[in-house]
Write a structure and sequence with these properties.
50% of the residues lie in helices and 10% in strands. The N and C termini lie far apart (98 Å). The radius of gyration is 26 Å and the shape is globular. It is an alpha/beta fold and 572 residues long. It is built from 23 helices and 11 strands. A 6-stranded mixed β-sheet has the order 1-2-11-10-8-9, with helices on both faces. It has a 5-stranded parallel β-sheet with strand order 4-3-5-6-7, sandwiched between helices. The chain folds into 3 domains: 251 residues, Rossmann fold, CATH 3.40.50.10490; 195 residues, Glucose-6-phosphate isomerase like protein, domain 1 (Rossmann fold); 57 residues, no CATH class. Helix 8 runs parallel beside helix 13, helix 13 packs across helix 14 and helix 14 runs parallel beside helix 20. Bound molecules: 6-O-phosphono-beta-D-fructofuranose. The site of 6-O-phosphono-beta-D-fructofuranose (F6P) has 14 residues, from loops. 6-O-phosphono-beta-D-fructofuranose (F6P) binds next to loops.
Length: 572
């Protein structure tokens, strides 16, 4: 009888069932129980759940996991074919099934000195060629040999792009060019379709010395096209030179569509091309990063690529049980799929990483915010959590109250930097070191409090301070030795591969984004309506939107509020 039951049970054993049972078991304990106080097993657990790769240290010991959890999760990864899929990715297989394309962003950072994996050779050679062209452009600019249409030397670059054509470069600029001494050229970013970011630039920049970089993989994104049109009008009017001439001198194009760049009047020499096998949100390493290279110089840009490449090698070569991107992916999937935590905060403890949450929002949510599997069936569990966040120290004074005492379970990534670069007088340096230590102390304190809740209250303060800290908010800490180009490159590649591994676990295609298309189409129709063109018949009528259109029309025709109040004031 027992033998029969055992046989039935063993037939029922799957990594998913084992994880489900294990999750129920772990949920009966608090995180505080798991972390375990000052005992030898607790110390051993903490040691076993921390991983270092070069200048990156990943601490998973405040997650609701044990060594057994990691082992079960790794079994799951094996059973899903993570290694096979990873190898196929690097070999240029058409992993983006819906668009029948490879996903070879790793080729954009593959160094000329290293032999690429079989299948990636042509892609790597193409990317290296474009990188040489990019370096020539950067050199020309830095030598002061790039002249505008009136013959003046270019001093400012305006990078115009959105989504993947904006978020990565902008984040790198904020991270690595936070001090004027680190920059070789003045760089400005414009992404929002409303022109709001252009207004101050058009007032403050000199049109004779401004170069536009139009970054758009598709070269059709309305947000970017409209911004460029306004910027070109500003250049042309300001310089009193026709737009084609301005385009010839002061417009660089970066796209996978060279013919569209040519149509706009961008000369070949000012075009940088990348192929459609690099997805927008994975394109920082491609010529989309040209503005960053212009701002920081090629040495920093190359270091960024080298860091990302080192993480590629680690992802390719390390066993899954020590593979940082795989471990991050598994713990993330564990949290949302097995522990039902649907929201994940990204909390950088360094102001230079302020845009990391926004960057990861696109990377993770546009990639894995899906619920239809590769086989066409619906996913029956949660996939990518809602990613959000802000600079941790500032958020402590804003939304941490909810995280500590509100009703939601939230997982988090704390990201901290161990040491800062110097370069200031002794007094200033000493003061900055104190600020560094204060920031690190706050990061560690918050990570501890997230996990332990009331159990983090020191013995001496018990009974003297208010309780009610919920704890049990699982979190990881990613510690960077320093925030240099190499480390940030490795960090972003770590997240890219995390996203890929999760897509394999959930059987999703992380490289397309069909969910963003319809919104663009509807906006196009409504744009025509607002612009007075009613010929568009193919729109769904809905009274709610109609009523808003009427209100907009009414207000756009009547005098503005400010002129009404001026009028009122004059009369009185
Ligand atoms: O609308 C989504 C999206 O297609 C992103 O995937 C992409 O990064 C962004 O728009 C910008 O696209 P493009 O680089 O083609 O202008």
């Amino acid at each position: 009888m027992n033998a029969h039951l055992n046989a039935v049970n063993s037939r029922l054993y799957t990594p998913l069932n084992a994880l489900q049972t294990h999750a129920e078991h772990l949920q009966a304990h608090t995180l505080s129980d798991l972390i375990g106080g000052d005992s030898a097993p607790a110390r051993e657990r903490s040691r076993a759940l921390a991983f270092t790769f070069n200048t990156l240290h990943l601490d998973l010991s405040k997650q609701r996991v044990t060594q057994e959890t990691l082992s079960l999760l790794t079994d799951w990864a094996h059973s899903c074919g993570v290694e096979e899929q990873r190898n196929a990715l690097f070999a240029g297989a058409k992993v983006n099934i819906s668009e029948q394309r490879a996903a070879l962003h790793m080729a954009a950072r593959w160094p000329a000195s290293a032999v690429p994996p079989k299948g990636m050779e042509d892609a790597a050679a193409f990317c290296q060629h474009q990188r040489l062209r990019l370096a020539e452009m950067v050199e020309r600019l830095h030598q002061g040999e790039w002249f505008g249409a009136t013959g003046e030397t270019i001093t400012d670059v305006v990078h115009i792009g959105v989504g993947g054509s904006d978020l990565g470069p902008k984040m790198i600029s904020e991270t690595l060019a936070s001090r004027p001494s680190q920059t070789r050229i003045n760089l400005h970013y414009v992404s929002s379709m409303d022109g709001a970011q252009l207004l101050p630039l058009m007032e403050s920049l000199n049109p004779a010395t401004t170069l536009l970089v139009l970054a758009s993989k598709s070269f059709t994104t309305a947000d970017t096209q409209f911004n460029v049109r306004t910027a070109l009008a500003w250049l042309s009017d300001g310089l009193e030179i026709d737009t084609p001439t301005v385009c010839r001198h002061q417009l660089v194009g970066v796209s996978s569509k060279p013919e569209k760049m040519t149509d706009l009047g961008i000369p070949d020499a000012h075009q940088l091309v990348f192929k459609d096998w690099i997805g927008g949100r994975f394109s920082l390493w491609s010529p989309i990063g040209v503005s960053v290279a212009m701002q920081l110089g090629m040495a920093s840009f190359n270091a960024l690529l080298e860091g990302a490449h080192a993480m590629d090698r680690h992802f390719l070569e390390a066993p899954l049980s020590e593979n940082m991107p795989t471990l991050m992916a598994l713990v993330g999937a564990w949290n949302c799929q097995f522990l039902n935590i649907s929201t994940h905060a990204v909390l950088p403890y360094d102001g230079r990483l302020k845009s990391l949450p926004a960057y990861l929002q696109q990377l993770e949510m546009e990639s894995n915010g899906k619920s239809v599997r590769l086989d066409g069936c619906s996913v029956t569990h949660a996939t990518c959590p809602i990613i959000w966040g802000d600079v941790g120290p500032n958020a402590q004074h804003a939304f941490y109250q909810l995280l500590h005492q509100g009703g939601h379970t939230v997982s988090a990534d704390f990201v901290a930097v161990a040491e800062r670069e110097g370069g200031f007088s002794d007094n200033v340096q000493a003061s900055l070191v104190a600020q560094e230590q204060l920031t690190l102390a706050n990061c560690l304190a918050q990570a501890q409090l997230f996990a332990l809740g009331d159990d983090a209250i020191p013995q001496g303060l018990r009974g003297h301070m208010a309780q009610g800290y919920r704890g049990n908010q699982p979190n990881s800490l990613l510690l960077l030795k320093q925030l240099d180009a190499w480390s940030i490159g490795a960090l972003l590649a770590l997240y890219e591969h995390k996203v890929f591994v999760q897509s394999v676990l959930w059987s999703l295609n992380p490289f397309d984004q069909p969910g963003v298309e319809l919104g663009k189409k509807l906006a196009n129709s409504l744009y025509n309506t607002l612009a007075g063109d009613d010929s568009e018949q193919d729109v769904v009528q809905d009274p709610s939107t109609e009523q808003l259109l009427l209100k907009i029309a009414e207000w756009r025709q009547s005098p503005s509020h400010s002129s009404l109040s001026t009028h009122y004031w004059k009369q009185n």
